[in-house]
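Appendix B. Raw example, untouched.
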Amino acid sequence: MLFNSLEFLIFFPIVVIVFFAVPKRWKNLWLLAASYYFYMCWNARYALLLLFSTAVTYLSGLLMDRVQKSGLSRRRKENRKKAVVAVSLFLNLFILFYFKYINFALETLKQLFALIHIELHVPFFDVLLPVGISFYIFQALGYTMDVYREKISAERNFFQYALFVSFFPQLVAGPIERSGNLLKQLKDPKPFDYDSVRTGLLLMLWGLFLKVVISDRCAVLVNTVYGDYQNFQGYGLILANLLFGVQIYCDFMGYSVVAKGAACVMGYELMDNFSQPYLAASIRDFWRRWHISLSSWLRDYLYIPLGGSRGGRLKKYRNLLITFLVSGLWHGAKFTFLIWGGLHGVFQIAEDLAAPMWAKLRQILGIRDGNIFCRILGIVKTFVLVEISWVFFRAESVSSALWILRNSFVLTDLTYFLQTDRLRLGFNGTNLLILLLALCVLAVSEIMKEMKIQPLKWLSSRNFLIRYCVYWGAMLFLLGSMNIMGQEFIYFQF
């Protein structure tokens, strides 16, 4: 069931109305039932995987709590808790590996043996990737490790914990919530609140605007070029690469904002998953702003346990590379994703190595911290590096990504492109005008948030006429995009 579908337009009001109508003790059970129904709309059988992951991590929490309260020595407690965490990690990651990576691993093994002239016959497993499996498994494992670290107490109410893992607004594409945030909120369901409902619905409207009006319209051009990339070069490829950066941002942020809005309607607050990433002045800053729930998860549960920045520069860079390679592999079982993640790790290392030289140059030139020119230069540099990496993320193979990058620099006459190539990009004049206007709205919103001005709060303080002109304008944009509604969110495949 997609957020941008008629089914969800019927499903969500029913869920909310019943949620506020039933007594408090039944609210979580109702949401749990609704969440499982929401997930089963894709593939009912795979709800068993969700239930299995939930049961394993729930029991692991109870076992660690029991060990912690036992009379064992501290060392024996620690060893037994580690054993429980290891079992939980193995079972959950085995599920993830089998459904997402088994064929990739076997094919890679076959190719490695081929390098030494050994023909290896490997089976092919006909498995369908369960939607959202990477998200809910990481969320469940985060809970296990939080209990192990004694950041939270083990949850004893199974149904409440099951709702934490399966909460439908963020179940299939995040944000990857922490038990310290969402699980605590689920313990105390909120009554109806007009302001929360209003704010939530406006967030949902904004998220759908990002997805349907901007992302899905960019997808028309991006898919046209990437689907026949060898017949394009220069400006056509550059435009497609630029618009893919916009497409994936608005697609994923659109989902996250709709999820946040849907939760807000019912009185729950999900974490922000994005913070103006294309205004980042460095790759490190980009990852503080992009897919925040995943980047912070990898930092807390992988990078820091590996040693983080402790132990010298070489170990720090090793840990960075491992973390970003895992990030790439998390997105998909393809070498293009590994290269995408590896590039971001290399970019960060290069920035770190260049930082002393850059600081010395600024000192010589007398450039102060916060210089606007340096910030703009940093934003442009970061944007270019991110756009280069997106080519590997979007391309079907490493060879096609390299072809696209190489031919992006083959620039023909711009006038010729405007008169001929642009007509083959899948756009008409109306779609182009709508996209340009929508991008202007996005740019203004991003700049406002960077200036610590919340667009929704700012809009709420305007007079009635301005507010409703904006609301109905957004609705008209959505209605004008009905012909391209119903497209899946990009991150559903992860």
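End of appendix B.
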